[in-house]
Amino acid sequence: MDQGNYQKIVSKLRWMQEEQIWPNGSRYLWTDAHGVIALVSLFAETNDESYLKQAEAVVREVYKTLGRPRGLRIGEDLDRDGQYFHYLTKWMYALNQLGRIKPMYHEEAVKLVKDVHEAFVIRGRGVRWKMTEDLSATYPGYGLGGLDHYDGYVQYRLLDPVALSSEIHDLKMLIDADYKKFNCSQDLALGESLWTSHFFPDEPWAQVLRQRSIKALDSLWCEKGSRGYFCREPKQHNVKFAFTNFGISYALQSVKLWPQRVQKLNTFFEEYRSNDEYDHEAITHVMHVNSLFPGLLAPFN
Fold first, then answer.
1. Are the C-beta atoms of residues 36 and 289 closer than 8 Å to each other?
2. CA torsion sign, 125 to 251 to 109 to 14?
3. pTM
4. pLDDT tens across 37-49, in order?
5. What is the pairing mode between strands 121-122 and 83-84?
6. Exposure winner among 120, 269, 278, 282, fewest CB in 10 A?
7. Domains parsed from the chain with CATH numbers
8. How far is the CA of 250 from the CAs of 38, 51, 190, in angstroms?
């Protein structure tokens, strides 16, 4: 790891704790998953046991605060109720990385699949985007997710292709019926689809997602000298979010694409302030760590 980036990460982690942003702030499953991955990545890189202890402490707090009889709540705040499938799959990935060191976390991830799969997956049709907190019904006003079957398929295969063979089959059927029609224009979703595609790059669905995501992301790139960013949607060149760019950044690093753009977006967002809640939100700063050092988010890099 680049020593300059490492020092930025150390400073960022210290500042977040001092400001009570993370890991001692409000629990939010998406952010906590990325944070656990970052800490386990730092342990793998440095062999510093303190990072491993911090990762395990976050996991304990997540289950204490967000854990439910089946699955995990989206977040601690009142407006973050219900469950998202794509948050659960990111948490599965975090547990799986920790489980490579301590197997009990791998077992917990497999159990999570068994707990939630039947509630979210409609065989032959799709994956529910959001469920009520007890998984008894689709959350009012929400339909099917566009990328969730890809997320689940990849995470299940990484976890345990034998124990989860039935669940993998359910999602593979959805992928086979869908991938040729894949079309996406939003920044965060494009980063996620590109990242998802890098785990099994020789499979036809992964090749389609990768090619179309790269093409779409290229159209979102806005460059200003030594700085740049990916805008939210085509024709919205002034709309930009730091955390979505950081997600794109680790996706690009996972496929070894556009390193200069990665550097330019990191440079841009080190100084950029949106002057809204995102300037102080944990999601912005935790994902900045992932952008500076993807670590286990880009295991084949």
1. no
2. negative
3. 0.97
4. 999 999 999 999 9
5. unpaired
6. 278
7. 1-181 (1.50.10.20), 185-301 (no CATH)
8. 11, 20, 12
